[in-house]
């Protein structure tokens, strides 16, 4: 199937809570990743509030550029959940009672030892003429409409309900309705270079890419992930050749290939070498430990952390020498070197990570402005301490420091 006939999808998320920032829209990001991996093309992502006219307008626009519309949100039992009624009006139909939906609701409620009330029972009303798909993870039905050879699917906004429906029902049904092209992708994690400098370095490579292949830049704090991609199995041989060329061009800038996160890469390296790690954190406040422990099985290699936010804790728990603190200050090479080595000794780990810095927005000086961060990593009796200047925004400084700390130890292990 050629690119000119590739099936196009638009994702529409519905809810006032999304527009006012009360809830972050994670649904569309997850859906886009899954759909792309399955060979579908997402052409737009739209968010609208709980307003019937705005929803209908969004549907008109979306049907003008996409073959399939995937909606999430507004399917609950309360008055602000208006998606179902809006779809009835849009498709010129009416709500009818569906006994099978009520039976699903009864099953879900009995499992939770809850009683059905009238609001919950109202979820068994569905638009006449649509295909009702059982919601095995909740009570709101999943609605499938076919209209002028186009498809609209309405799902609950609860992430686990949406993900279950997409995985078990929607994606398999879309595959039966539409042929797809294979999505080919190679990812490369790069560090020690800015996005703009990397783009300059790879400008000739991009210009010489064969038709059908593209290179995308996905920057994050202190790193850039490159994605080399194409649609269609006919590009597979060329994809391999270009990926090998890119690897040679990146050289020592390449941290790893693939989509694994930094914490996963570090965990894999520690597990492969049968090593353990601990952290001593000041300005990151335990964020490095949090990141490491988001990986399943992290207890194989992560032993614990000391959050030494104050100098008193640095002295009392990490045994940082008082005269070193007084002479050099908490944000200094000698302090993080002692922190890294001493936390490894205290928690009996092979490796140690220590971070001390000025996250901001206040607390900086001419000598040590906001964003000044010292990081020391400890492995096999060796210490590697490095100074970073991470920026002026507190959240960014913490995230960037965590990335740099994990990267620094990962490179030591290599």
Brief digest:
The chain is an alpha/beta fold.
Structural description of this entry:
The chain has helices at residues 16-19, 27-37, 52-63, 83-90, 99-111, 118-121, 159-177, 195-201, 203-207, 236-250, 262-272, 287-292, 311-316, 322-328, 333-346, 394-413, and strands spanning 8-14, 41-48, 68-72, 95-97, 125-127, 131-133, 142-147, 150-155, 183-191, 214-220, 223-231, 254-257, 277-281, 302-307, 351-357, 372-379, 382-389. It is an alpha/beta fold and 414 residues long. A six-stranded mixed beta sheet has the order 2-1-3-8-7-6, with helices on both faces. β10 (214-220) and β11 (223-231) form a beta hairpin. It is globular. The model has no long low-confidence stretch (mean pLDDT 94).
Task: Annotate the secondary structure layout.
Elements: E1 8-14, H1 16-19, H2 27-37, E2 41-48, H3 52-63, E3 68-72, H4 83-90, E4 95-97, H5 99-111, H6 118-121, E5 125-127, E6 131-133, E7 142-147, E8 150-155, H7 159-177, E9 183-191, H8 195-201, H9 203-207, E10 214-220, E11 223-231, H10 236-250, E12 254-257, H11 262-272, E13 277-281, H12 287-292, E14 302-307, H13 311-316, H14 322-328, H15 333-346, E15 351-357, E16 372-379, E17 382-389, H16 394-413
């Amino acid at each position: 199937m050629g690119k000119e006939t590739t099936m196009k999808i638009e994702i529409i998320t519905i809810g006032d809570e999304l527009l006012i920032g009360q809830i972050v829209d994670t649904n569309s990001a997850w859906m886009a990743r899954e759909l792309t991996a399955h060979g579908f093309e997402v052409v737009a992502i739209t968010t609208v509030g709980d307003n019937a006219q705005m929803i209908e307008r969004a549907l008109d626009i979306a049907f003008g550029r996409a073959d399939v519309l995937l909606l999430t949100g507004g399917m609950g039992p309360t008055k602000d959940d208006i998606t179902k009624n809006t779809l009835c009006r849009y498709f010129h139909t009416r709500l009818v009672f569906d006994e099978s939906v009520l039976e699903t609701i009864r099953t879900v409620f009995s499992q939770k030892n809850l009683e059905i009330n009238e609001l919950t029972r109202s979820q068994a009303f569905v638009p006449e003429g649509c295909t009702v798909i059982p919601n095995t993870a909740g009570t709101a039905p999943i609605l499938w409409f076919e209209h002028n050879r186009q498809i609209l699917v309405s799902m609950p906004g609860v992430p686990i309900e949406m993900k279950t429906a997409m995985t078990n029902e929607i994606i398999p049904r879309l595959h039966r309705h539409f042929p797809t092209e294979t999505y080919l992708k190679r990812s490369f994690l790069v560090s020690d270079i800015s996005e703009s400098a990397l783009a300059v370095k790879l400008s000739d490579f991009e210009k010489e890419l064969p038709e059908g292949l593209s290179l995308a830049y996905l920057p994050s704090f202190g790193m850039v992930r490159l994605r080399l991609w194409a649609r269609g199995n006919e590009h597979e041989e060329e994809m391999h050749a270009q990926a090998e060329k890119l690897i040679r061009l990146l050289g020592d800038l390449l941290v790893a290939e693939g989509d694994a996160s930094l914490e996963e890469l570090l965990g894999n390296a520690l597990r492969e070498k049968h090593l353990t790690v601990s952290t001593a954190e000041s300005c990151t406040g335990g964020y490095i430990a949090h990141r490491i422990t988001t990986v399943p099985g992290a207890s194989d290699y992560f032993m614990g952390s000391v959050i030494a936010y104050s100098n008193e804790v640095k002295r009392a728990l990490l045994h940082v020498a008082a005269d070193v603190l007084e002479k050099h200050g908490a944000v200094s090479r000698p302090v993080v070197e002692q922190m890294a080595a001493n936390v490894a000794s205290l928690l009996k780990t092979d490796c140690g990570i220590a971070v001390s810095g000025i996250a901001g927005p206040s607390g900086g000086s001419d000598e040590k402005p906001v964003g000044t961060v010292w990081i020391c990593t400890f492995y096999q009796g060796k210490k590697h301490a490095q100074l970073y200047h991470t920026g002026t925004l507190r959240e960014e400084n913490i995230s960037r420091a965590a990335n740099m700390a994990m990267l620094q130890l990962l490179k030591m292990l290599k």
